[in-house]
Amino acid sequence: MLETALIIIGVVLLLIGIAGCFLPFLPGPPLAYASLLLLQLSEKQPFTFVFMLVLAAITLFVVLADLYIPVLSTRNFGGTKGGTRGATAGLILGLFLPPLGIIAGPFIGAMIGELITGQNLTKALSSAFGSFIGFVGGTLMKLGLSIYMGYHFYKAIMK
User: Fold this and answer.
1) Can you give the residue ranges of every domain in the chain?
2) Start-to-end Cα distance in the chain
3) How far apart, in whole angstroms, are the C-alpha atoms of residue 20 and residue 28?
4) pLDDT in tens, 50-67
5) Judging by beta carbons within 10 Å of its beta carbon (0-12, 13-18, 19+), is residue 147 exposed, middle or buried?
């Protein structure tokens, strides 16, 4: 009975974790990792300590990188602090207009932020494109890790 409850809760956490890869207010990979931790509470204990430790480190790295990648990408495409701040504001406002707002918000925010700080339209669009590339890169990184953890979760419960 306890095993079944752990698996059901784990599946729910895993699904919410995968959704969290796209929704910035949900911590996707940490929730997916929590699903694996739940399986460790079962009698099987399917994962080694080293596996869980390495996966925890990778999860932490991905979460931190996801915060930095959009900023780095915006800067690499010529963005200034105005573009970075605009992208952040656009992301927050975009949360209220899902699902398109989550994607378009940072792009539009970076562009407006650059225009407000006196950049020309070409530079503003380049910064906005950088913000978008960073968002996509971070999302793919989180999704890849969460799917990897989902694979191990599924493999463990099917044994």
Assistant:
1) 2-157
2) 17
3) 4
4) 999 999 999 999 999 987
5) middle
